[in-house]
Amino acid sequence: MGIDPRKAAIIGCGAVGASIAFRFLQQGLFSRLVLIDANRARAEGEAMDLSDGLPYAAPMSIQAGDYSDLDDCALIVLAAGANQRPGESRLDLIGKNVQILRSIMENLTKRSFQGVLLVVSNPVDVLTYAAWRLSGWERRRVIGSGTVLDTGRLKQLLGQSLQVDSRNIHAFIIGEHGDSELAVWSGANVSGLDLEQFCRIQGLRLDAADRERLYHQVRDSAAKIIRCKGATCYGIAMAVGRIAQCLVRDEHAVLPISAVLDGQYGLSGLSLSVPSVVGRNGLEQILEIPLDAPEHQALLDSARQLAQAVAQCGLTS
């Protein structure tokens, strides 16, 4: 069976999976969407609820299904797993969610699926690497949502601080999608003007203390949202929608997805969120962007923590 480029599936219909499904409905990227959940009734209910909005969106088939419906999907989004609770880090979810992942991958690898697997469940970098190891698929076909959401948070906050459209901000959060992530300030710019130049022209100030404050807001954003409402869902749905758009439209866009490293930045044996070219076939190229000395060390420190987490799962090379 070949790949249907307009067919996608979402495994896991909790707050995140359902929000992603709603984003796909809004985008009109797919003509067929399959929802799978351990609770079949939950998937059926979400499919019915989403389908009620079809008269106001592009034509699309949305249905609950099972693994036999996945063979011809171009994209499968993995959003199943335990949620992060108040006070937990994303890495605290490792044991529970690796076990869930093992079960899912056992079912998935029995199918003739040839598309791209996009891991969204946390800890996303660890689970992306685990999914790649368990599947035996090419590196390009197993990617994670990485720090696409965190990067969006940084752009939004920078846009507010600099009083400029956040879409004109070019900056990255890289490393772990979690507490050890880092902001690449050395390469940040506003439509080609580095931050210092832009601030000078506009008569604004963004000193080291300001940058550190913004970084902590980005890093701690998820924890605050979880304390306030129990889960994050809309921001990650928008981020996944952006990745899906790159895949469907073969954009060759640069996004900080979680990718399995193979010597880039001197690292291997783990997945890390770094700027990468994304197109129809998934991961096309990992970009080794310039980092200053403190940023490079912070990336290595983040990688060390993730490598330890991978080792806990028994999935080291």
Helix content: 40-55%
- The number of distinct structural domains comes to 2
CATH architecture type of the largest domain:
Alpha-Beta Complex
CATH class group of the largest domain: Alpha Beta
* Average predicted confidence as pLDDT: 94
Number of helices: 9
SSE blueprint and pairings:
Layout lengths: L3 E8 L3 H13 L4 E5 L3 H12 L9 E4 L8 E6 L15 H15 L7 E4 L4 H12 L6 E3 L3 H15 L6 E2 L2 E2 L7 E2 L5 E2 L2 E2 H8 L5 H22 L4 H15 L4 E3 L2 E5 L5 E6 L2 E4 L2 E5 L6 H20 L5
Parallel strand pairs: 1-2, 1-4, 2-3, 4-5, 5-6
Antiparallel strand pairs: 7-10, 8-9, 10-11, 12-15, 13-14, 15-16
Helix pairs in contact: 1-8, 3-4, 4-9, 5-7
How would you sum up this structure, described in words?
- Helices cover 42% and strands 20% of the residues.
- With 317 residues, the chain is α/β, with parallel strands linked by helices.
- Strand 13 and strand 14 form a beta hairpin.
- The radius of gyration is 19 Å and the shape is globular.
- The chain starts with a strand and ends in a 5-residue tail after the last helix.
Q: Which tags fit this structure?
A:
Rossmann fold, 317 residues, single chain, L-2-Hydroxyisocaproate Dehydrogenase, Chain A, domain 2, globular, 2 domains, three-stranded antiparallel β-sheet, six-stranded parallel β-sheet
Would you kindly provide a brief summary of this structure?
This protein is of the alpha/beta class and 317 residues long.
